[in-house]
Amino acid sequence: MTAAGPLPVTVVGGYLGAGKTTLVNSLLRQANGRRLAIMVNEFGALPIDASLVEAADERIVSLVGGCVCCSYGEDLVSSLTMLEALEPRPDHVLLEASGVAFPGAIAGTVGLLQGFALDGAVVLADAETVRGRADDRYLGSTVRRQLAEADLILLNKCDLAGDADEVEAWLGEAAPDARLLRTTRAEAPIDIVLGAWTGRAALPPAGGPFDHTHGYATAALDPPAGAEPEALARILADPAHGLLRAKGFMRRSGGGMAAIQTVGSRWTVSDAPADAPAGLVCIGLEEQTDFAALRRAIGCP
Amino acid sequence: MTATIYPAARIVTMNPARPHATHVAVREGRILGAGTLEELAGWGDYRLDRRFADKVLMPGLVEGHSHVMEGSLWAYVYCGFFDRMDPEGRVWAGLKSIDAVVERLAEAAGALEDPAAPLAGWSLDAIYYGGRRVNRHDLDRVSEERAVGVLNASGHILNVNTKALELAGLLRAGVNHPGIPLGADGLPTGEMKGPDAMAPLGVHTGFDRDLLACDEPGLRRFASLCVRTGVTTAADLANLLPEDAVEMMLRVTGEPDYPARIVSLRRFYGLTPEELIDRALELRGRSRDRLRLGIIKVVADGSIQGFSARLRWPGYYNGAPEGLWYVPPEHLLEIYERALAAGLQVHTHTNGDEATDLALDCMESALRKHPAPDHRFTLQHCQLADAAQFRRIRALGLCVNLFPNHHFYWGDQHYAVTVGPERAERMNACATALREGVPLAIHSDAPVTPLGPLFTAWCAVNRRTASGRTLGEHERIGVADALRTITLGAAWTLGLDGEVGSIETGKRADFAVLEDDPETVGGERLKDVRVWGTVQGGRIFRAADLQP
Ligand SMILES: [Zn+2]
Prior knowledge:
By secondary structure, chain A is an alpha/beta fold. Chain A has ten helices and twelve strands.
């Protein structure tokens, strides 16, 4: 993305204690020069690591407000606008939602805003407690809806859970549209969580440092000539192929370049600069992704 | 020091030992006593002031749940269906058609010099216009050059014109959002439903969030409304109280002629529960007579008319989903525990009955850990509580502040759409609360509905909807109960019943000065009782003399 393009926003959701702030800190550690702006909607026991913030020149904005009586929260909008105006402009915004917020609702608002692009909704689930919470009299429907609205679920604290496989199977039914990644201490590659890689070279190696339980598989694809970007994006986002993310550029049959981006089942196609290099990079879980089948489905050469 | 003795046509004291008096004596801003002239003359030197000789005095009315924002909103154009008085005493006629709304907005737009300035209106009641939705073309008749936005009375819909959509980048096909209906042309109709859809438009239509948070002119205008409605103490129920606002409020309320006592609650937001307690303790220490600080407000759920209140089974009558939590249960429990341990008071907004259940569960558990006599934790709105919940509320020593104004403004919608007939008839069950011995207040939630405790009392006594239906005969309360509730009842929930709420020896000289006697006009006419003004801390404020 060029500096003038829309500013990507990732919504980080999940109930208290699932690891939202731990994830934010982990992403800050991996930022590697990228300017991440953080918006916090709720202050929990765990703070954003101040040393990381200074080191990497990130910005933290706390959100205040919400809809009560007849006041309504445009704080989201004004805070985002403020971040967008920063010099230098951040590369990515991480919006840490409150523990009882619906990430889909926030994502919906972000999607309406000029100058911003919704990157996706990442929801953390505590492998130890999520099923109990989903049955809780007060919280059950909230937790279930949070999960169902996720593009990516990070099944966290897998090291503590008795049987993560069982939880994973349950999540497959509770959130059929979401892709799932197992994590410990909310450590997940920034490239997957934020789709923040810019070229093929930056892709994480399969079985990288954050991979405790699964290996990642990546592949570079050349989109077939004459394919429609929207049709292609739909295939890349199809749960059948199990991709976590796909990203790249292709030539439209009518001329001009299109940018394709998917996270889980969410896909977007937008106009891209004429000099954008054609090519797609896809990333999935090693044991769930069959790139040969994917290549056949999109008719790759 | 010389006392002032006021004879009055009648003095309604709310002191059961001496319910009525002919004279009241005031010295140093406080009440020496109420009784006969002979009794009061015993206090020594006095001056007889006959200005209230033909008036009725009541204890200054106490509004237990309003927002100072009511004063600020009048900076925008009033577009409501019902007549409403502004802080300067002008009554804005209710607008009975969409054309009338357009006409009033167009007039306001015509008075603006900057052709690009946005125009904002508030309190639109689209439900009264025969089922026809207000759309952007209606508001384009106000102006095509400037952005126009009108906030719905329920606070959950924002209507905008084409220019506003254009500025927000939303005048395009393919907008896919559940809160944004599309017209036959595939473009948004201009109706933005729910906070998620409203948010992108607010900045373009002139709704200034800092202004709405609490501004100086708003705080002054709010006090004018207090004088005009007989209110001498008003709770400002959900302020974030940033430092500059606290300093401004201390300065303004400390001015010698500021006519009201403001009890401003710190809303839980942007702090951890632990930090919240520290901040509340610090604020409490900075209280002055006319600015009381240190109470905490927590919002548990949303609103019934916005379908965001948390309802127990079977949920909303129209099948809408179960609403939203605004606080994680763990945080509510932690705040209760810490506040009880620190001796701080918490008011909790619980509109739906499931939210009330959660508050009761948290309270029960927190009290086991920190038993606290006389904590006065209060459930605000608590609109759908049933008898069993009121019994639990009583057992846990909680107070409630119910919202009878809802019957008038939204009762017909509650009956037909939101909660259905049976629960609509028991909403804001004032009679049950009193029967079960729960300390009761009633409120306006201004600006959600207009400030005016006598109107709120009328709502509790009559339970009349806008269409004339009596919504739950069984939950009507008597005039005497209603009058006690808007004085001593509300004062109790704010921990001020030892200072205000009745006319008796030692209390603040706070009076509502009335032209009619609310005890004898009859419940039907309670809302029509005319207010001359107030006496606050012995200072006299005549509504007709207020400077704009
Ligand atoms: Zn309120």
